[in-house]
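Weekly modeling sync, notes
Attendees: S.R. (lead), two postdocs, one rotation student

Agenda item 3: backlog of single-chain predictions. S.R. asked that every request posted to the team notebook include the full sequence so nobody has to chase files. The rotation student volunteered to paste the first one in as an example of the format we agreed on. Action items at the bottom.

Example entry:
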Amino acid sequence: MPGFRAVNPKEESAPMESVARVTEISCKSDKSFDEAVRIGIERASKTLRNVTSAWVKDMRVSVENGKIKSYQANVLVTFVLDES
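Predicted structure, as returned to the notebook:
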């Protein structure tokens, strides 16, 4: 996907002295997978601090009358936990 770097969270390189968490989100668009992922990351970033990467786990489309109605992506979002 142009402009989006998908990273497998198992391969994520975080700073040596940090702890990260991975959470799964589901995002949807009526235009494209790219837009669905972009919308999901932007929305997740409003709630989660220190988002460092995302991995697109799977994608699917909703079909109606033989045409694509919407695009959905399940995305694993990695964010570094704040220091206590």
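Discussion: group reviewed the output briefly. Helices lie at 33-47.
Action items: rotation student to repeat for the remaining queue; S.R. to check formatting next week.
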